[in-house]
Specification:
Blueprint lengths: L1 E2 H4 L5 E5 L5 E2 L2 E2 L10 E3 L12 H6 L4 E4 L11 E5 L2 H12 L8 E6 L4 H14 L4 E4 L3 E4 L2 E4 L7 H13 L4 E5 L2 H5 L10 E4 L7 H4 L2 H13 L6 E5 L5 H4 L6 E6 L6 E9 L2 E6 L2 E5 L4 H16 L4 H8 L10 E4 L5 E5 L4 H14 L6 E5 L9 H12 L2 E4 L9 H9 L4 H5 L1 E3 L3 H11 L5 E5 L6 E4 L2 E4 L2 H13 L1
Parallel strand pairs: 4-5, 5-6, 6-7, 8-12, 8-13, 9-12, 13-14, 14-15, 15-16, 20-24, 21-22, 21-24, 22-23
Antiparallel strand pairs: 1-3, 2-7, 9-10, 10-11, 16-17, 17-18, 19-20, 25-26
Helix pairs in contact: 3-5, 4-10, 10-11, 12-13, 13-14, 16-17
This protein binds ligand UAG, adenosine-5'-triphosphate, 2,6-diaminopimelic acid (API) and magnesium ion (MG).
Protein name: UDP-N-acetylmuramoyl-L-alanyl-D-glutamate--2,6-diaminopimelate ligase
Function: Catalyzes the addition of meso-diaminopimelic acid to the nucleotide precursor UDP-N-acetylmuramoyl-L-alanyl-D-glutamate (UMAG) in the biosynthesis of bacterial cell-wall peptidoglycan.
Cofactor: Mg(2+)
């Protein structure tokens, strides 16, 4: 139980009707999940308007309502508080409700189009291995020390986020690493959260269905840095041309990393193989288990954060050389016959290009590259032809298939992808909407030594078709096909 007036601390209030001295049992943004004596926060969403569900919330037992405009008819037993922006107010309220947990833990947020999960997961594993109890909030999973809590979003809503952070604090975590998506920044999911540091990995074409323009998408990512305090650090990839823009208005101390430009944390790639890579970081040569140039950036970001959090650089590099990548990110599945399978979460043109460039760099002879790729339904459609074109440019054979079709027709999604292919590229393309059959075909095409890339779903263990999540795991399907081939 918490006093409403305490929870409203630092919220900019326009109007109050009723008593704010009452205690409330919890906060809720979904009228369908309202518990007795709770406070319902009405948010204008992308599909619905929470203000239309205020009476439902009251029927389910809400005692207080936070909204942007008071309803025409007021219930005398209920306290109504009108605020400027309910979503922003929710962030502050959720932080207050859970005892401002982000002020009691060193929290680092990672934003960028690609690399968030990889960097956050590696930071979590690194700091655990250095002896700190840590929390992780990511696309793949949330963690409090060794306890795994399933994840539904890359960045959870403000209530879930603060509740998770409070559990981390209660369980003795001293550090937490989280992904901060552009959706979360725009929707104020991290409003009121105190970050010890923020990391920018890179920005490229994605989510334009939501943000509409690339400039708006850049502005969304920048919000993380605009919100950092003067005691925080910002760490940005200077090789990305938007790195500097991210920190234009930040109060935080600015730090940079990169492979090309002058940077505070700079590395040189010495070798890059299917077994791992060697980097020279300042004057130290270190071997890492991760593969590919883009992972050199991820490793540098992790190293930079650790040093900025005052860990010993030598100890950090030695622990980092033991670290594996995040699940479903360039995950290898090798067949008994010697075919290299790579399962990767590349679901944007930039990520796909990076992964395929890496594979091209790793080719040693005449081995073929066979790529199986689709694009998600009810998501940015402009990336579809681009992804097909990239797949065709770098591969000897391309199998266009379904990702998560959601509520779209898989055949239509594949048609959108095919639009990116020229006549010569069409010759190496096969379209097969059934993802399992597509993987089977790739394995049938492959000969020992060849490389099969299965892109787009990485760690996902389901395929979402018309609102139903069916069991599906690219890694398991690929293993199954390799085994069948070997029988
Ligand atoms: C497009 C989007 O981001 N939507 C998120 C948003 O929901 P919304 O604005 O669409 O909500 P809405 O359906 O319009 O409803 C508005 C309000 O009315 C309430 N409502 C609605 C119906 C009802 O009967 N009663 C009721 O109270 C809803 O609970 C909500 O508070 O706010 C919700 C609560 O925080 C999120 O769960 C929801 O995520 C949806 C499920 C989603 O798919 N989001 C994806 C796109 C997303 O957020 N992805 C990023 C990662 C992107 C990346 O790859 O980088 C992420 O952080 O996961
Ligand atoms: N630093 C990077 N630069 C470019 N591509 C990367 C980078 N790191 C990873 N990738 C590619 O992008 C894919 C997604 O990586 P990761 O899951 O770490 O990113 P993310 O930002 O968490 O993505 P999401 O927004 O979907 O959660 C990887 O599978 C890999 O192909
Ligand atoms: N966070 C991303 C993940 C996309 C993963 C891909 N497999 C797809 O389903 O499109 C999104 O929701 O857009
Ligand atoms: Mg992620």
């Amino acid at each position: 139980m918490n006093k409403l007036s305490d929870i409203l601390y630092k919220v900019s209030i326009r109007q109050v009707k009723g008593d704010t001295g009452m205690t409330i049992s919890g906060l809720e943004i979904d009228s369908r999940a309202v518990m007795p004596d709770s406070c319902f926060v009405a948010i204008r969403g992308t599909v619905a308007d929470g203000h239309n569900f205020i009476s439902n919330a009251i029927e389910k037992g809400a005692k207080a309502i936070i909204c942007e405009a008071l309803p025409d008819e007021l219930n005398e037993k209920i306290t109504y508080v009108a605020v400027e922006d309910s979503a922003a107010a929710l962030g502050t309220m959720a932080s207050n409700f859970y005892g401002n947990p982000s002020t009691k833990i060193q929290l680092v947020g990672v934003t960028g189009t690609n690399g968030k999960t990889t960097v956050a997961t590696m930071l979590f594993r690194l700091f655990q291995s250095l002896g700190h109890k840590c929390g992780l909030i990511s696309t793949v999973e949330n963690r409090i020390g060794d306890v795994v809590i399933p994840s539904t979003h890359t960045t959870p809503d403000a209530i879930r986020l603060n509740s998770l952070l409070a559990d981390m604090v209660k369980d003795g975590c001293t550090y937490a690493f989280m992904e901060v998506s552009s959706h979360a920044l725009v929707q104020h999911r991290v409003a009121g959260v105190k970050f010890a540091g923020g990391v920018f990995t890179n920005i490229s074409h994605d989510h334009l269905d939501y943000h509409k323009t690339f400039d708006a998408y850049i502005e969304a990512k920048k919000l993380l840095f605009d919100g950092l305090g003067s005691d925080a650090f910002a760490l940005v990839n200077v090789d990305d041309k938007r790195g500097k823009i991210m920190v234009q208005n930040t109060k935080a101390s600015i730090n940079t990393y990169g492979l090309r430009q002058l940077a505070d944390f700079k590395a040189r790639m010495i070798s890059n193989t299917l077994q791992g890579m060697e980097l020279q970081i300042h004057d130290q040569h270190v071997w890492f288990k991760l593969i590919g140039r883009f992972n050199a950036y991820n490793l540098l970001a992790v190293y930079g954060v650790a040093v900025l959090l005052e860990e010993d650089p030598t100890e950090v590099l030695s622990a980092m050389s033991e670290l594996a990548g995040a699940p479903g990110r360039f995950e290898l599945v090798i067949s008994p016959a010697g075919i290299t399978g790579i399962v990767d979460y590349a679901h944007t043109p930039d990520a796909l290009e990076n992964v395929l460039e890496t594979i091209t760099d790793l080719r040693t002879g005449n081995e073929k590259v066979i790529t199986v790729v689709g694009a998600g339904g009810n998501r940015d459609t402009t990336k579809r032809p681009e992804m097909a074109a990239i797949a065709a440019r770098f591969s000897d054979k391309v199998i266009l298939t379904s990702d998560n079709p959601r509520f779209e027709d898989p055949v239509e999604i594949i048609k959108d992808m095919e639009k990116g292919l020229g006549p010569s590229q069409l010759k190496k393309k096969v379209s097969l909407p059934d993802r399992k059959e597509a993987i089977r075909l790739a394995v049938n095409f492959a000969e020992p030594g060849d490389i099969i890339l299965i892109a787009g779903k990485g760690h996902e263990t389901y395929q979402e078709i018309e609102g139903v999540k069916h069991d599906f795991d690219d890694r398991a399907v690929l293993k199954e096909m390799f085994d069948i081939m070997n029988d």
